[in-house]
Write a structure and sequence with these properties.
The protein is of the alpha+beta class. Helix content is 34%, strand content 19%.
Length: 226
């Protein structure tokens, strides 16, 4: 079961919980999954005090709004195709004494309460079984790097090509863009996901600055645990 009811607290609670340990709806970079859920909010910005993880995600995805059409993924799917298999937070609220009249978890009416309860228990059982067999999560981080050239004559495409040529176990390069910094000079901002036990940021910076024909310096723009 994907994301629904994002216009109210019920759906926002689910979205906030889902994003507590995630930066994106799917994978480690913005995709059409993020676009679908973002659009389902209809411009409603999650309250940062009530839904800090959803608010953080919303502002991050909003910064990619001019790139929505070019992000990877299936743009034909809506928000209901993404998210948790079972809306566990809602199910637990019902089990603990929530008002079934207020929370229509499976879209059932009063005559179908028994069937809805059976489906809910079945899906919860499937969710718990899958969660119990889920492999141990590998600690990962998302890093955005600012790579600065020597001057406006530096071939930025070759600079990016050199950076992406770095191949390490536990390193996956993500999206990148060139950002003007003044006087005709642009810097490369590039994202990557690293496995914390295998790749160190200091080692990565050292490898990038080794391309001394192109690179003047490297700075960490952002670092977030996944």
């Amino acid at each position: 079961m994907g994301f629904t009811q994002l216009e109210n607290d019920t759906g926002l609670n689910v979205l906030n919980g889902f994003l507590e340990e995630r930066s994106y709806i799917q994978g480690y970079e913005p995709t059409q999954a993020d676009v679908a859920v973002f659009k389902a909010l209809n411009g409603k910005v999650p309250n940062a005090e009530k839904y800090p993880h959803a608010a953080r995600w919303y502002h991050q995805i909003a910064s990619y709004s001019h790139e929505f059409d070019s992000l990877p993924g299936d743009s034909s799917k809506d928000a209901s195709h993404y998210g948790p298999e079972v809306v566990q937070a809602l199910a637990e609220t019902v089990k603990e004494g929530g008002d079934d009249d207020d929370i229509d978890l499976f879209g059932s009416d009063e005559e179908e309460d028994a069937e809805a309860e059976r489906l809910k228990e079945q899906r919860l059982a499937e969710y718990r079984a899958k969660k119990a067999t889920k492999p141990k999560v590998v600690a990962k981080s998302m890093v955005n790097l600012d790579v600065k050239p020597w001057d406006d004559t530096t071939d930025m495409k070759e600079l990016e090509k050199s950076v992406r040529s770095i191949s390490l176990d536990g390193l996956v390069w993500g999206q990148s863009k060139f950002i003007p910094v003044g006087y005709g000079i642009r810097k490369l901002q590039i994202g990557c996901v690293i496995e914390d036990d295998k790749v160190g940021v200091d080692d990565l910076e050292e490898k990038i600055t080794a391309f001394e024909d192109y690179v003047q310096s490297v700075d960490v723009a952002s670092f977030n645990k996944l």
